[in-house]
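Budget justification note: compute hours in this period were largely spent on complex prediction jobs such as the one shown. Inputs:
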Amino acid sequence: MSDAWLVVLVVGAATVAIKAIGPVLLGGRKLPTPMMSVVRLLAPAVLAALVVVQVAGGDRAIVVDERLVGLAAALVALLFRAPLLVVVVAAATATALTRLALG
Amino acid sequence: VVAFGISFGVLARSAGIGPAAAIVFSGTTFAGSAQFAAAGILEAGGAVAAAITAAILLNARYGAIGISVAPVLGGSVWQRIVLAQLVVDESWAIAHLGQGRFDRGRLIGSGVGLYVAWVGSTAVGVLGAELFGDPEALGLDAAFPALFLALLWPQLRGYRAIVAAVLGAAIALALLPVAPPGVPIIAAAAACLVGLGDQR
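Corresponding output:
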């Protein structure tokens, strides 16, 4: 089995279980507040890390390249409340143009 | 959601995830951020375990979200398991009536619509990916970080979410030169512990 399929199947099964656990087991009871806060903050922490790693990640190194221009373009698009596709296209276009200009 | 699904399909392809695997991924996981994270780590040459761990950490929030909607998802155990799968960030937001109360009809209706759109658009993206040429010349390597930034954006509500995000980013940056691919992302999850101080 390829790596991609392994990831797909394990993450898929785990997500089905995670989503089902509340409605199936707890039936309305709530987690203690501190635990809920921690779980809620997982997404922003992990997503921020993903931004950093995807924009500056190299082969065990911090690499500053044209991707940073793309991220800046994405930030501008977000500030203008652009839809997701526009944000992504803006980043890709800015990076491609910078790469072309620096040749 | 459709645009999002198409982008996932295209990016999955550049991460070496085949069309069938990408469509099954959308059909079972049905959670964009985790799917993008796993594809991103695989694309960077990260270990399978790192991709799986990061995706599961991102989806852990559905444990909490599932608990919040549990009162309106009644029925047999099997019904509850199936209905729980329709809960994603968007359907949860649409069904929210305020003060922690939820509408069952809206949750199920929007969930089914989102599911069909998500799986269908993934198929379009992954099968149409061939139409795109050299990913780097098109700047597609900048598409991943831009996507994560766009996903992070609506999550940055409240002081603690911002602290968690800044801390997570700092941990990842510090570990980037020394740790294997994927590990900085998992370590950054520790930043969520700032939630422990929240006593509301």
